[in-house]
Amino acid sequence: MLIDSNIIIYAMQPQEEKIRTLIEKNAPFVSVVSYVEVLGYHKLNDKEREHLDFFFKTAKILPISQNVLDHAVKLRQIRKMTLGDALIAGTAIAYNVPLVTRNIQDFQWIENLELINPFEKR
Questions:
Q1: What integer pLDDT is reported at residue 122 of this predicted model?
Q2: Which helix (H) or strand (E) holds 10?
Q3: What b/e readout covers 18-49, taking b as 16+ CB neighbours within 10 angstroms?
Q4: What is the CA radius of gyration of the chain?
Q5: Residue 116 in contact with residue 99, Cβ under 8 Å?
Q6: Is 102 exposed, middle or buried (0-12, 13-18, 19+ CB in 10 A)?
Q7: CA 69 distance to own-chain centroid
Q8: What are phi and psi of 102, to 5 degrees?
Q9: Any bridge partners for residue 29, and if so which?
Q10: Sign of CA dihedral 43, 31, 33, 53
Q11: Residues of the chain below pLDDT 70
């Protein structure tokens, strides 16, 4: 599975033990886009940055390959979406892994993309 940037951010919140457990049990992938989005946030404090640095050093980060780019371009040709979302969805499609996100509505229109919202009751 590929975890979206918002899931990484939620996992930092003390009350989100369920999200941290999901990450620990599944050793999910992350996109280089999430690396930039999360670590690049200008309001991170030193402690948050330290935790995130550790997370990204141990995470399996998937690169932006030509295949990822091709999928992202196709998605943006079909429908208006942010560059970050297109690259993250393109990564999940290219590597054939489900996308774990709370923002299901941003991606639900995409065929052949399995979505998991860990905040939904199953």
A1: 54
A2: helix 5-11
A3: ebeebbeeeebbbbbbbbebbbeeeebeeeee
A4: 14
A5: yes
A6: middle
A7: 16
A8: -90, -20
A9: 2, 60
A10: positive
A11: 121-122
